[in-house]
Amino acid sequence: MEQAPRDPERQLQPAPLEPLGHLDAGLQSAVGEEAEVARDESPGEGTMTENNFWLKKIEISVSEAEKRTGRNAMNMQETYTAYLIETRSVEHTDGQSVLTDSLWRRYSEFELLRNYLLVYYPHIVVPPLPEKRAEFVWHKLSADNMDPDFVERRRIGLENFLLRVASHPILCRDKIFYLFLTQEGNWKETVNETGFQLKADSRLKALNATFRVKNPDKRFTELKHYSDELQSVISHLLRVRARVADRLYGVYKVHGNYGRVFSEWSAIEKEMGDGLQSAGHHMDVYASSIDDILEDEEHYADQLKEYLFYAEALRAVCRKHELMQYDLEMAAQDLASKKQQCEELATGTVRMFSLKGMTTKLFGQETPEQREARVKVLEEQINEGEQQLKSKNLEGREFVKNAWADIERFKEQKNHDLKEALISYAVMQISMCKKGIQVWTNAKECFSKM
Amino acid sequence: MDMNSFSPMMPTSPLSMINQVKFEDEPDLKDLFITVDEPESHVTTIETFITYRIITKTSRGEFDSSEFEVRRRYQDFLWLKGKLEEAHPTLIIPPLPEKFIVKGMVERFNDDFIETRRKALQKFLNRIADHPTLTFNEDFKVFLTAQAWELSSHKKQGPGLLSRMGQTVRAVALSMRGVKSRPEEFMEMNNFIEIFSQKINLIDKISQRIYKEEREYSDEMREYGPIHLLWSASEEDLADTLKGVASCIDKCCKATEKRMSGLSEALLPVVHEYVLYSEMLMGVMKRRDQIQAELDSKVEALMYKKADADLLTEEIGKLEDKVECANNALKADWERWKHNMQNDIKSAFTETAEENIHYYEQCLATWESFLASQTDLHMEETSEDKPEAH
Questions:
Q1: DSSP readout, B173-242?
Q2: Does ipTM exceed 0.85?
Q3: Which chain A residues are Cβ-neighbours of B228 within 8 angstroms?
Q4: Euclidean distance between CA atoms B293 and B301, whole angstroms
Q5: Comparing A25-56+108-199 with A201-348+367-450, is the CATH topology the same?
Q6: Number of inter-chain CB pairs under 8 A, A vs B
Q7: What is the DSSP letter of A40?
Q8: Taking the model in full, what pTM does it have?
Q9: Superfamily covering domain A201-348+367-450
Q10: Cβ <8 Å between B196 and A250
């Protein structure tokens, strides 16, 4: 498993509240016990040095899912699923874990947490949530959000999300995240009190910046293209995979029909009867083996889906950079124009069209006192502007530096995870082939004895 | 297809060769070899039809030559079948492929349909050649050896169409009667035929469906592999792994194609032939019942009409012989047919199982070699950086 790099200085945008204490603690992530299909990989381990809420090593798991009914904002009855989040602290010496916190959260609360993180850590590639609605379904899978298989896969996805956040060197220190895991009641209010929704950049502003920015960092432009390509290719892959799964399901299941017919036929045969009957049994085994095979494949698809959604997170970081860069360019432009105006007033030449210029022409020159007053105002504005530009420049450079560091971290993680996923796919295929060989070898024996 | 000189090794397929050798009474004396090939389209003002070239090689004395080459069309095969049924009403005549295309059986109407039909026609003729009785049938000989005009004139010699039609109507009426007085062993036989027919039809449908599903699976796989290649173009570290996966999927796709062609050669035609056989068998049962019914109606007539007693008794005597002959012929042929059926079915399914095993073995090897290459790489990489284990 990869080690997250240690860099306590790398926290540009501070979390809204101070951390509890400076303690040397380790953070460990593990897969929950109730997970039906164990995920062999844990998304990552991290070692934190300072500014950490955790006194000891902790384990996080989303261990259960429960159907609930309640009333929504419009006072209408609704059904939703709640997930149990358990946090355990692990004793160093004997490895035993003690349950420290346990609370229920629904999907919308996870969304709230993530939206908060997106606003406060725009330079971080924030881990994505599992899909809200089932997509890329093939015929046997249900597209229903209440379907138990979907709920189960979502449970695993939510756990994965929490583990990713917990193992991120910066995100894990966030107080709101800590409270998400420990404070059941009132958490929503606490998040909303941070006022993060107001701090969020408007979509329109971001879109505008994307189109108008003149000199974005080339690396971000390339990254944006990469994330578009990644999203497109993974979507395509998932779509075709779903169709392949559908077809494979068909091939296996039709063989099951042989079982029944062979059995009925064997009733009228003397010599062939036994062979037919037992061959039929093997056909049944073959047909039912596909269910497990495809269930495993579904987990592989989920691993790919996570990176499909990560592409969007990458784009978010690029957009923030474009916004900051555009902001900087506008500020610089504004400063330049003010300086120009100042110069013109001082020297008396008019090179730029200005309303003031027009009105003075129409209504007569202003007095020297008036002019001096204006120059002074402008000079002040220019000073301010220069300060602002300086700090914006600094901010921009810091952002680029920090964002790029996280992007490098993300790249390594992505390469590692996807490679593992692809290898696990090969392992699945191998297992499927071995099962196939066994069943057909048995069937062949039965046939040859007929 | 080795067309050179007389060669005993000219089977329809390796498997059927084995069948022929096994179930001939005197395997070493197979002396009639037939191939059907070279379909050709003929266009006249009235119609378009296809003829097939039929090559016969034989060492039999009653044939004027040791090698014959003729062209026949489907109509000619139909004629032959009719003559055989007429001459041997209670023998199990091999089935002919369908006159019209069965929906869903073949993908594209022309080439595949003609090829499937060609193979089935070849099987038909060879089955007749292997049959201890039918092989010596005169019409069969004419079919194999006569030139086109000779065949036409020979065809005209048989009983007219009208008389045959008349017979059919009478036959239907009689067969109802024959069913009631069927001896026990033929009741069993009929029961078998009914159930067999049901089951083989189902198996035919299932097998066709499997072929179709495999075809669609193969189509999707063909699109699936290249996407990984496309992806590898925008990756650095992952490029090799992705390319590896793409290549594996590609190879598995090819293995699927092979599996499908195995199915369509070893299983589908065999199962389908037995579907047609089961129809033939019902016809044979009917004809036997008719013959019996003829006897029964005369016997009944004797009970009520004392007047023609002598004539009737004579007729009954002849019919009793006829019935006995028919029953014995059927019994013997039935055993022979059942034996062949068991072996054909057994071979077909065994070969199918082998094809499937081979398919999975190929895919396994592909993925295992990919996995090995990936873990080798991983070993290299990890040994380069840190000493601690994963």
A1: HHHHHHHHT--HHHHHHHHHHHHHHHHHHHHHHHHHHHHHHHHHHHHHHHHHHHHHHHHHTT-STTHHHH
A2: no
A3: 237
A4: 12
A5: no
A6: 141
A7: S
A8: 0.81
A9: Arfaptin homology (AH) domain/BAR domain (1.20.1270.60)
A10: no
For A420, phi then psi, to 5°, come to: -60, -40
* Domain limits, chain A: 25-56+108-199, 201-348+367-450
Using a CB-CB cut-off of 8 Å, the residues of chain A touching B252 are 429
- The gap from C-alpha B355 to its chain's centroid, in whole angstroms, comes to 19
Q: Is B13 helix (H, G, I), strand (E, B) or coil?
A: coil
Class of the CATH domain delimited by A25-56+108-199: alpha beta
Contact B83, B158 (CB under 8 A): yes
Looking at the complex, report in whole angstroms how far the Cα of residue A185 sits from the nearest Cα belonging to chain B.
Answer: 40
Selection from B259, B356, B339, B343 nearest residue B15 by Cα: B343
**What is the pLDDT tens value at each position of chain B, 390 positions in all?**
444 444 444 444 544 444 444 444 455 567 889 999 988 888 888 888 889 999 999 988 888 888 999 999 999 999 999 999 989 988 999 999 988 765 555 444 477 788 889 999 999 999 999 999 999 999 999 999 988 888 888 877 766 554 455 456 666 666 566 566 788 889 999 999 999 999 999 999 999 999 999 999 999 999 999 999 999 999 999 999 999 999 999 999 999 999 999 999 999 999 999 999 999 999 999 888 888 888 888 888 778 776 677 888 888 888 888 899 989 999 999 999 999 999 999 999 999 999 999 999 999 999 999 999 998 766 666 665 554 444
The answer to whether A83 and A104 are in contact (CB under 8 A) is yes
The CA distance from A94 to the nearest CA of chain B, in Å, is 22
CB A255 to CB B210 under 8 A? yes
DSSP assignment letter at B265? I
Instruction: Select the residue from B345, B375, B382, B385 to test the A interface by mutation, using most A Cβ atoms within 10 A.
Output: B345
Cα distance between residue B194 and residue B177, in whole Å: 19
Tokens of A97: 């874990």
